[in-house]
């Protein structure tokens, strides 16, 4: 594959970056193409195409990282950016580091059909089909919007350790939002699976199925009763609750937050932090998943990392610069939204592994509680461990049976406490895809889990 | 003012073929970001972004493309992409760009959001400032355990727009801000709180204010725990009110209304909030951080009264929604940068302040829950259905005085009910980053869920 920058230019740019004396320098080059289209009100409203290309250069000197970026990939543009990053790193005094770039490591992805190779007319047809499917789900569906977004992101990383690595990520996501209207007002349904796949995504996901799911959710919620208020047992359907663990403990296991003492999990490696049977894995190699890649944005191969093993905390997630400081290897969790920002520790695909209980038994064994089928986004304060996430489709469990749908409400809990309160783990499994925000950067992640029960979470409904 | 961005946009717009409308929007930023941790500069980033977004409308069909570059050949490719995209969209008779008649719907707004002084502040001076912020916060109160982060950032942002109907506009603004997050507590307890200060130049960033705010918001939560569920009056601190308004803002959007997705559907002229409540979007107030002389289509901004004495006055429009609704644009076109087409959005939304000071509002609240921060506001509120349920931390009020600190609870109601339950609006209007301003707000009744 053709490199985004010639090896000679990478070499000379790194030399510029190291000229003032520094321990580490890196050039990150990115070329991104994206396109999307939206149908709303039964009409194809708009198609959008975007292109972006540039390089981010970082120079590490002691505890300080200097950073600059440029969209000008000429020798002059790169030299200027390298000089700016070096100046920002406040280098000086130390000797100039020598290095030699190795042969590029490339990673094959298994994308079958590049989205760009598919005619636009064919993609537009998908939106129409989704609209028809959602509308035919029920007469109370008042409004449907459907869209797709697809992107191809090629990256090249070279650093003063001699590393040169490239990766290509192709991602596709289809979104449907349906609004239903009834006596109780309006309710919404939403479904948007994302995968690291090309156009073959649609072989796996029929747009009609995505649309019907969104529409059914909106229709179901028309009959919803107010959610309970207070502490309840919560059963999370497979896939639906992965985001809980993403928030409840995933973020707290990111080494940058641990290093700042801004995590409740700091200093807890080797300790029992979750109920027995709880095993949490972050796996950037999970085939076709939304948070998957070949190498991370620091050129480190994606890995599968066990973070909690049968309840015991085994490791944090690391990026390259922090791992170097700690004298260990990166765990392949260095990610950045674009070349215009610095990488940091981020999750990839984070999931709880399956147990051996029949999911139906878990529900039957719950006298009263809430059954969550879909969660919206969440948020965590890693320093306190307190997290929230929205239940966008949930039901009451009464006497061991799923009964009435509840209106959307927030769940709130504490990460370490919730991990200890898991008292049933199902033998099924599914994932969920979303965008994860941290310090202003948004990256695709997935989360997953079997059906499971958390004995005690606070739900913020309005039922008295 | 350097008008090369405007010239570029005009060149693109001049390329329109017969029967075609073209709009170009170009942006250039220059930014400095400094992060300090534990007494040293952790990262220093000095960088700028350039980009262009091109909208093409032909036969009522709209296409859009963007590029992260102002290079002439890239811009040409972008125009071609936008044209090709338009061919695949479906016609909509209401599609169109802003024309001179739209621009004439309000007088031009004159103010300067740019401060030359920002460019003359050296990077060393900014670094010194953050190091001092980190140091002063670390030693500000014996109950603090550490500083989670201390940072400074500034930016100079220039943008220009031109379209083939002869509309053009440009604006430039500077912004500078500092923020810090503190941690307090020992043993198993940790509480966090942050402070910030924002202005249009370096001099207006108030280091002392950041420290004081971070300390107050952190230490007053020490010992916080969940409390039993109850129905309770709730006081929002100004930051929380600003978040509430940011969510509510979507309901005033004519785009949502036209598509049947606003909870204010068919409610114009009706009471949607308690008597006396006035809500205004006013980008012509230069003290609002979202202030702007014109909107994202080049139409002058103006004062838009949305709720007066509790009664809904109307919706916010861009030229598309105005055409479709038979209304006039309110100068409310908004875009998230050069990567998107103009939609409709709030720019500077606030409650009109009342006469009671913040402490008088607390006194009126009596026994209540004072909320200093909310979490999950986007996942927990739905501006279509109106459901509102968010995580909250703060303090219980007894007889208007702060008593025990609270965390890990939720507060819930619906947006329509909350508007009707507004019992007091403070006089403490607080300008904040983003598109809303805050003040102390008393909501008479919400459901608190805890233990």
Strand content of chain A: 35-45%
- Mean of residue pLDDT of chain B? 95
What is the total number of structural domains of chain B? 2
Structural class of chain A: alpha+beta
How many angstroms separate the termini of chain A? 63 Å
Poorly predicted runs of chain B are none
Shape of chain A: globular
Give start-end ranges of low-pLDDT stretches of chain A.
Answer: none
Question: What is the assembly state of the chains in this entry?
Answer: heterodimer
Q: In what order do the strands lie side by side in the largest sheet of chain B?
A: 3-2-1-4-5-6
Describe the sheet with the most strands of chain A.
Answer: 8 strands, mixed
DSSP summary: helix tally of chain B = 11
Summarize this structure as a short list of keywords or feature phrases.
heterodimer; A: about 475 residues; alpha+beta; 8-stranded mixed β-sheet; globular; B: about 450 residues; PmbA/TldD fold; 6-stranded antiparallel β-sheet; 5-stranded mixed β-barrel
Structure, described:
The complex is a heterodimer of chains A (464) and B (451). Chain A contains 10 helices and 23 strands. Chain A is an alpha+beta fold. In chain A, strands 1, 2, 3, 4, 5, 6, 7 and 8 form an 8-stranded mixed β-sheet that branches. A 6-stranded mixed β-sheet of chain A has the order 12-11-10-15-22-21, covered by helices on one side. A 5-stranded mixed beta barrel of chain A has the order 9-16-17-19-23. In chain A, β21 (430-438) and β22 form a beta hairpin. In chain A, α1 (7-18) packs parallel to α2 (75-88) and α3 (120-135) runs parallel beside α5 (207-222). The mean pLDDT of chain A is 93. Chain B is an alpha+beta fold and 451 residues long. In chain B, the strands form 5 sheets. Chain B has a 6-stranded antiparallel β-sheet. The radius of gyration of chain B is 24 Å and the shape is globular. Chain B starts with a helix and ends with a strand. Classes of the chains: A alpha+beta (464), B alpha+beta (451). At the A-B interface, β2, β3, α3, β5 and β7 of A face β2, β3, α2, β4 and α10 of B.
């Amino acid at each position: 594959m053709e490199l985004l920058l010639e090896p000679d230019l990478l070499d000379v740019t790194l030399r510029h970056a190291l000229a003032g004396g520094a321990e580490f320098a890196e050039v990150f080059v990115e070329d991104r193409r994206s396109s999307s289209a939206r149908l709303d009100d039964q009409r194809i409203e708009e198609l959008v195409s975007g292109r972006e290309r540039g390089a981010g250069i970082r120079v590490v000197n002691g505890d300080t990282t200097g950073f600059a970026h440029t969209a000008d990939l000429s020798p002059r543009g790169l030299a200027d950016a390298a000089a700016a990053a070096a100046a920002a790193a406040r280098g000086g005094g130390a000797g100039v580091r020598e290095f030699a770039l190795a042969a590029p490591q490339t990673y094959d992805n298994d994308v079958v059909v590049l989205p760009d190779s598919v005619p636009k007319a064919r993609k537009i047809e998908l939106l129409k089909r989704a609209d028809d499917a959602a509308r035919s789900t029920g007469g109370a569906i008042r409004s449907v919007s459907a869209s797709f977004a697809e992107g191809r992101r090629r990256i090249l990383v070279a650093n003063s350790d001699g590393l040169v690595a490239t990766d290509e990520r192709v991602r596709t996501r289809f979104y449907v939002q349906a609004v239903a209207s009834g006596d109780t007002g309006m309710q919404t349904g939403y479904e948007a699976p994302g995968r690291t796949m090309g156009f073959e995504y649609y072989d796996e996901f029929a747009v009609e199925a995505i649309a019907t799911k969104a529409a059914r959710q909106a229709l179901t919620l028309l009959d919803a009763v107010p959610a309970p208020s207070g502490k309840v047992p919560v059963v999370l359907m497979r896939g639906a609750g992965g985001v809980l663990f993403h928030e409840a403990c995933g973020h707290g296991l990111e080494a940058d937050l641990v290093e700042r003492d801004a995590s409740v999990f700091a200093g807890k490696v080797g300790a029992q932090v979750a109920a027995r049977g709880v095993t949490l894995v972050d796996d950037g190699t999970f085939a076709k998943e939304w948070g998957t890649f070949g190498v991370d944005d620091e050129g480190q191969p994606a890995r599968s990392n066990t973070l909690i093993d049968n309840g015991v905390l085994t490791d944090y997630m690391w990026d390259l610069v922090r791992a170097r400081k700690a004298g260990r290897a990166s765990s392949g969790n260095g990610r950045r939204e674009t070349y215009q920002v610095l990488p940091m520790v981020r999750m990839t695909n984070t999931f709880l592994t399956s147990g051996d209980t029949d999911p139906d038994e878990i529900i039957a064994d719950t006298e009263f509680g809430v059954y969550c089928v879909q969660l919206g986004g969440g948020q965590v304060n890693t320093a306190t461990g307190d997290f929230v996430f929205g239940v966008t489709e949930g039901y009451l469990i009464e006497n061991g049976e799923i009964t009435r749908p509840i209106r959307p409400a927030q769940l709130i809990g504490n990460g370490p406490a919730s991990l200890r309160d898991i008292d049933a783990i199902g033998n099924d499994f599914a994932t969920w895809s979303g965008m994860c925000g941290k310090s202003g950067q948004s990256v695709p992640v997935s989360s997953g889990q079997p059906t499971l029960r958390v004995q005690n979470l606070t739900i913020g409904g309005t039922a008295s | 003012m350097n008008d090369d961005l405007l010239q570029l946009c005009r060149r693109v717009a001049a390329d329109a073929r017969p029967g075609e409308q073209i709009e170009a929007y170009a942006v250039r930023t220059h930014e400095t970001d400094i992060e300090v941790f534990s007494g040293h500069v952790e990262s220093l980033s000095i960088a700028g972004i350039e980009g262009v977004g091109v909208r093409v409308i032909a036969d009522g069909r709209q296409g859009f493309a963007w590029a992260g570059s102002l290079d002439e050949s890239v811009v040409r490719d972008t125009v071609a992409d936008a044209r090709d995209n338009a061919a695949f969209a479906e016609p909509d008779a209401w599609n169109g760009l802003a024309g001179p008649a739209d621009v004439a719907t309000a007088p031009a707004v004159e103010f300067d959001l740019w401060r030359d002084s920002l460019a003359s502040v050296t990077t060393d001076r900014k670094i010194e400032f953050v190091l001092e912020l980190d140091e002063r916060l670390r030693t500000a109160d014996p109950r603090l355990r550490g500083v989670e982060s201390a940072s400074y950032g500034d930016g100079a942002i220039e943008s220009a727009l031109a379209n083939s109907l002869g509309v053009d506009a440009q604006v430039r603004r500077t912004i500078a801000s500092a923020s810090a997050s503190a941690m307090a507590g020992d043993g198993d307890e940790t509480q966090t709180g942050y402070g910030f200060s924002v202005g249009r130049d370096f001099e207006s960033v108030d280091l002392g204010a950041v420290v004081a705010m971070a300390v107050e918001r952190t230490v007053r939560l020490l010992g916080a725990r969940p409390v039993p569920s109850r129905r309770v009056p709730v006081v929002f601190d100004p930051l929380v009110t600003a978040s509430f308004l940011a969510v509510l803002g979507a309901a005033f959007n004519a785009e949502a209304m036209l598509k049947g997705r606003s909870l204010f559907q068919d409610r114009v002229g009706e009471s949607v909030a308690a008597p006396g409540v006035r809500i205004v979007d006013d980008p012509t107030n230069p003290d609002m951080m979202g202030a702007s002389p014109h909107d994202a289509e080049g139409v002058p901004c103006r004062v838009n009264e949305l709720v007066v004495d509790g009664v809904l006055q109307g919706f916010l429009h861009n030229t598309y929604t105005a055409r479709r609704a038979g209304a006039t644009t309110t100068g409310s076109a908004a875009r998230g940068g050069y990567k998107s087409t103009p939609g409709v959005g709030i720019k500077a939304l606030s409650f009109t302040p009342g006469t009671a000071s913040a402490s008088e509002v607390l006194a009126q609240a009596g026994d209540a829950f004072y909320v200093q921060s909310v979490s999950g506001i986007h996942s927990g509120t739905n501006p279509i259905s109106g459901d509102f349920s968010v995580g909250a931390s703060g303090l219980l009020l007894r007889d208007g005085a702060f008593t025990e600190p609270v965390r890990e609870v939720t507060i819930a109601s619906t947006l329509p009910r909350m508007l009707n339950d507004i019992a007091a609006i403070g006089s403490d209007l607080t300008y904040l980053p983003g598109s809303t301003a805050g003040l102390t707000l008393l909501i008479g009744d919400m459901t608190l869920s805890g233990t």
